[in-house]
Prior knowledge:
Layout lengths: L26 E4 L14 E10 L2 E6 L3 E7 L10 E10 L2 E7 L3 H16 L5 H12 L6 H13 L5 H9 L6 H12 L4 H10 L1 H8 L4 H15 L21 H11 L6 H8 L5 H29 L2 H4 L2 H9 L11 H16 L9 H11 L6 H9 L4 H11 L5 H8 L2 H14 L4 H4 L2 H25 L7 H22 L2 E8 L2 E9 L3 H6 L3 E10 L3 E10 L2 E8 L2 H20 L3 E8 L6 H5 L19
Parallel strand pairs: 4-6, 11-12
Antiparallel strand pairs: 1-4, 2-3, 2-5, 3-4, 5-6, 7-8, 8-9, 9-10, 10-11
Helix pairs in contact: 1-2, 5-22, 6-22, 8-18, 8-21, 11-14, 15-16, 21-22
Amino acid sequence: MDLSSKKINNSINQRNTANQEKRAIGKMQHLGERATLRQLTEGQVIKGEVTDLRNSQVSILLEDNTKVIGRLDNVNWLSIGDIGTFKVTSVEAGSIKLQAIPLSDSEMENNTMFKALEEAGLPHNSRNQSIVLSLIRNQLPITKPSILNILKQSYDLKEASISTIVLLNKYNIPATREIASQFENYLSGGNSMSNDLNQCLDNIPSLLRELALFSDEEMTTNAKHFLELINPGSSTNNEEVSTGSAYEFSSNRIKNEILSILSDFDLTEEVSDAIRNNSLSITELNSIIQECYNRAEAMDQRNQDELLASLTPEELVNQTKVDAALAEIPKIIEAFDHPEFQKIQDAFQEHLKNSQLTGGFFNEQIRENLANFLEQNPDNASLAQQVRIGNASLNELIRGIQNTIPHATSDSIQQLLVSDAFIFLVSNDLKKQWSLNPEDIKDKDKVGAFYQKVYNQMKGLSDMMEAISPDFRESPAGSQLTAAQNNINFMQILNGIFPYIQLPFHANGFSGNGELYVYTKKKELMKNPHQITVLLHLSLEHLGNLDIHISKNGMILENKFFIEDDQSKRFIKKNINLLSEKLNDLGYSVTNEFSKKENKVDLVNDFIAQKEPTTAIKRYSFDIRA
């Protein structure tokens, strides 16, 4: 048998040494019936379990039950029960000298693991081994109660890994099913608050369909409660509506062409001057064009009526002659086929959308249906008219619907709840509420109020839906609302360990998710608030994942950008001067560096573990008696 290559059988760790013979240096003892007594040679490497160790004398039990007794000097990291590898340095009459080959980290872990399980009287199965190894690797005491505690929790939290459960215990985080799930989401990068919120929005249609299934009285009550939850603000319908900025014509030549066309429809000199001077807002310009277009339609209709009146009864019954006569009439309205009119209309529609006005989202028929619903409340007559012409804001519309619900018929409420228009209204409203704008992010109180509002809305929706449908929490919509609430709760737990916040945001027509990690410990930050290091992780639709490490020392800022792809890197470098100029204007001295993003954020080692003192552990230890 080659003693240097054989693994030690687990049975060695379960040996019974009660009847071992008295120790004698320089001996090889045959303990097995089939083992062959052999002579060791200098330089030979053997592997076995240390069965005794005292006064530089060691007894080693090999795999074939041969026991080697020899001299071992200057070894303070070896203990009884360890499995080790040894080199024979000399073999002289009556004396064997050995040199211990240092154990690797994994060998030391395995030694400690097997001894711990043996002393605890626990089976050497894979679950128990994982528990002890995880305790070792997280530098936690290996006590019998700690092993049994993790073992019990592993049965309670079947879907959580052993390492997750140990980490939760290490950092005194409650080991519940919800928290364990969120912790693993954060470790794997699946913790985006924006994703959770967007998935909740995707389930809005199913929520509304559920509300529409109930009896008349219940449906009215539930619809009213639903709108109170998502729109708890004032019921005032008066909002100042922006008319937009001035329209910029493609060129002065084009402007003069448009002005020439419109001048045929009784433009006042004041309006003509306003068009020449570009002093009309896009809304005012569009309104003037619409008036001129209506006049052109009326003139074409008048010309058509005059022609038909001029035809004889015999000609009128001949449709071919009628069509030929009508085709010869010049169509005044064709002047509005000029391409610039379409550009003006597109700009006006963009303004309506940016201003969140109904005309930018709903066609004329849908606006008419919404206006008819609103008119069931006599107080909404003015608002209904603004909806018809597209000038009412979406906020005004949803509040008007909220005020109309108590006055509306059950059939109209049911049709409203399942309509695409209402689903869009609710989703759009919540999407705005469930994200931060740049001004909000500057104010920590607003960020806190944002999460409080979102959490209350989600809890309110969950409670309401569960009250009317007991199985709701098990549905996809209910599960997602619960997951989002759990994310907010876990974020609060993390923030108690180190400064951290997620920032779902929208700006300039796009949205994304940000995560702000603070490297600087809270105590150090309190002592020196002018010196801080943070990581801002951004997930952006067009730029991908972006990490920005920011070090601030007084008025000196060092920014390091870690970017996923070269195209995004080029774009950011090209525009970085915009950021630098803004920061310079605030008095900061700024330097920027750009690198390829290769590593993910390590939540545990980079942030959670920073609250622990970092001391090297030279030897694994356990206290099974504790």
